[in-house]
Amino acid sequence: MIKKIKQFIWRAMLIVFQLSLLAFIVYRVVPVPYTPLMLQRSLETTNESFKLQKKWIKIENMSPNMPLLAVTGEDPQFFNHIGFDFEQIKNAIEKKIEKGKTLRGASTISQQTVKNIFLLPIRSFIRKAIEVPLTLMMEAMWNKKRILEVYLNIIEMGDGIFGVEAASNFYYHKSSSNLSVYECAAIVTTFPSPLKRNPTKLAYSLKKHQIKLVNLRKYIDKKNFWWYK
Hints:
The protein is mainly α. It has helices spanning 2-27, 36-44, 65-74, 86-99, 109-118, 125-141, 144-154, 164-172, 181-189, 204-216; strands at residues 53-54, 156-158, 161-162. The longest helix is centred in the first third of the chain and has 26 residues, at 2-27. The relative contact order is 0.16.
């Protein structure tokens, strides 16, 4: 019986690996059409006027400030790691041990992209265990440009709103290609809590964070955003 269970687990893992590999190959060039979170939001909503809003846009067509500020606010070491920011993980664990604070995810843009494509936003060690090999696989198969492009196109931005283009259309009534630096910063400020924050109605503390992001963006090496040259 134990041998059969082990064989079942091994075969299941192999199937998951093969399907993930196929997904990474396809999504390397094809827009991600749907995510588990989009399905979850569609099923759990009680809002009769709920409408899924998403619109894919190539990263070259976004305002250059959009990916720059996303990296500034979410993952400053994005171009320097292979999917995991071990310094942030170390700091999060130390704060948990020393101050008893809730253990932050310390997730990179790469990890968030994998989570958004394959998984639901459930906090568990099992999800993290699945996330690790998938993140390494994605980093090996995609370049940083593609990871950032997919991330910005599928991230939740409001009730039924996914991706920065849909968010820009909804909140600012224009394409993300025409966003100002402060509008881009406002959108990035809402990333951690998109269902509770509105980029056009930021609280005072969030407006301070918005301005901080604009000022900090100069420390990110713009040479990494080679596709805008």
